[in-house]
Amino acid sequence: MYYTTVGEGRDILFLHGWGCDGSVFLPVANRLSGYRSILPDLNGFGKTPPPPCAWDVRNYAEETAEMLRGMGVNKTLVVAHSFGARVALALAALYPVEGMLLVAPAALKLFSFRRVCKVAVYKGKKLLKKLGFRVTLPKGSADYAACSPQMRPTFLRVVNGNVRPLLKKVSCPVVIINGRQDCETTVRHAKALKRRLKNCTLTLTEGGHFAFFAGPQSAAFAVRCFAEGIK
């Protein structure tokens, strides 16, 4: 797994979201003196090649833990965005994590009547197409459409996977930051995750899914406050 480090001091591991790479956190890491920021490109993103087969979140967590062991990191703080939060939660069940700051975490799959209807329509159209009818199948989500053919099976395993059984194994302090206007990982999702974690606080901010990255200085301040609050 490719990674870069910025600075020296206490370790903070940054885990990016789907479709991004470690460089998305560089503006934040560059403002964190006194810390060593570890910025990996998760498999299939940036400079790290795709996994050899369809991976789930646990596979990503195991690969990340192996990278940390290879670096000689005994314990670390974790800052994760979106899909990276899934990996972080799985990692905390496998590896000594001091604390986690989860930004717009895409961790839980909650019941959605709208999604159930969309799946039913898709399956119905797929059946009609097999029977010879001329129908147009939906293209799926933007993230799925942007995936390479090699990464699509992994995408499906990740989004359809269930991290809930791992949550009871997460004992470290967790802070969640979620935008009130986030349409991808909603406040409802953030509150549901908070309820399922033992030691978790939730902070709501203004903005959408990428609001955290809009102001690197304020983001770095938030990370520093989080790190200093966990000794």
From TrEMBL:
GO terms for molecular function: hydrolase activity. Gene3D superfamilies: alpha/beta hydrolase. It comes from Candidatus Fimimonas merdipullorum. Keywords: Hydrolase. Residues 12-213 form the AB hydrolase-1 domain. The keyword Transmembrane helix does not apply. GO terms for cellular component: membrane. This is Alpha/beta hydrolase.
